[in-house]
């Protein structure tokens, strides 16, 4: 498969990861563009089973570099929703309730520091496997699992504090 085809295959993931880290579509587009150039240059060298995780790591690093250059921390609620799943298509009846829950979840996740926020989003929103995330973030698998547990616990506590009626 050509590098162009491989980049197209991972372009949506790269943009979504950049959006989740930066918090705004404009910043995400800038970071994704930088990341896709790096992905295009190096994707042929990466093993096929590691490409998805590697592309996510490149996107995350490009987004963090952009934030460092601009010295701006992403803010949930600025731009597109942080927790919008890749293939979201809610039922019309559930749209209002889901919108409230999604907004509160975005606020709760926004209270998390990195790497907790990134790990939670890559696992629970993007659906990456534990091994893929550990590889992408260069973390031992057990450390990743501990961080994910802490991230979920902290997000739940923040959600309980802001909207207890939404927490079962």
UniProtKB/TrEMBL annotation:
Transmembrane segments: none annotated. One of its GO terms (biological process) is DNA-templated transcription initiation. Belongs to the sigma-70 factor family. ECF subfamily. Keywords: DNA-binding, Sigma factor, Transcription, Transcription regulation. GO terms for molecular function: DNA binding; sigma factor activity. This is HTH luxR-type domain-containing protein. Residues 127-154 form the HTH luxR-type domain. PROSITE patterns: HTH_LUXR_1. It comes from the Bacteria. Pfam families: Sigma70_r2, Sigma70_r4_2. Signal peptide: none annotated.
